[in-house]
Amino acid sequence: MASNDHLADYLIAPDPEAARLTRIVDAIDHSGDAMRLAVIEERPLTIYLNKREIVTAMTIGDYPEYLALGFLRNQGMLAAGEEITGVDFDEELETVVVRTAIETDYEDKLARKTRTSGCAVGTVFGDMMEGLAGVKLPEAELRTSWLYALADKINRTPSLYLTAGALHGTVLCEADRPLVYMEDVGRHNAVDKVAGWMLSENVHGADKILYTTGRLTSEMVIKTAMMGIPVLASRSGFTAWGVEIANQVGLTLIGRMRGRRFQCLAGADRLVRDVDPAVVPDEASKHRRKGAPQ
Length: 294
Known about the structure:
Elements (H helix, E strand, L loop, with lengths): L3 H4 L14 E7 L5 E7 L2 E7 L2 E8 L4 H11 L9 E7 L4 E6 L4 H13 L3 H11 L10 E2 H12 L4 H5 L3 E7 L2 E8 L2 H15 L6 E5 L5 H9 L4 E4 L5 H10 L2 E7 L2 E6 L4 E2 L22
Parallel strand pairs: 3-6, 7-14, 10-11, 11-12
Antiparallel strand pairs: 1-2, 3-4, 5-6, 8-9, 8-10, 12-13
């Protein structure tokens, strides 16, 4: 269990005791014995951009404003420097309305695409790919000692995952400090919450590391690049297209990071090997979470 000093690094950390995020349900185990389990709550959240409904996401319900802002920013619906005049969450209606000073180009584009195709999903992903044109992430240093320290701290942080499972986590880090730790039923939601916090607090990504428990897919790489973060690390595996896009935008991609082991699939020029892996303790079984096999 993490100590208070350990948690002091975080600006936002998971709260396993938070109301409304879990529910106690009755269950029967493999032996036929009755038991009670904490399970994650799922709630719909509908996101509006000005007057247009954009998407309904299934989420655990914490930080809805950050989720809405981050989703819109990572999908390219909010341009850099866009003047946001309001972010309003209605708990009863389960909606967030993000308002901008002027109607965005994306609203008109989405309206036309939806009328002609009846499906906005391909449009959204296509626009994300378009947003990568000309993206080149900043130069940055990545010390291996930071990776080891982050993995150790994050694995010992109390979380909803350790309480109830069925979640992904994403952590915004600076050097060897974890700053903002978000969880959700979908890894994309967790990343979008981090992005929304960065946008709300005007925090840049040039000197940051993004850590995730989820797979390093093309969409995860694109979101990280859209956030201006030059390093993405995960306990889990990766896809070939994710690696390809990481190389395209100059992102350092670290996968299967468990204990003293990791694999760098792109951007290895940023690595500074300042610690001998042999002196790094391997991950204790009690701290192991889902991810790539050892």
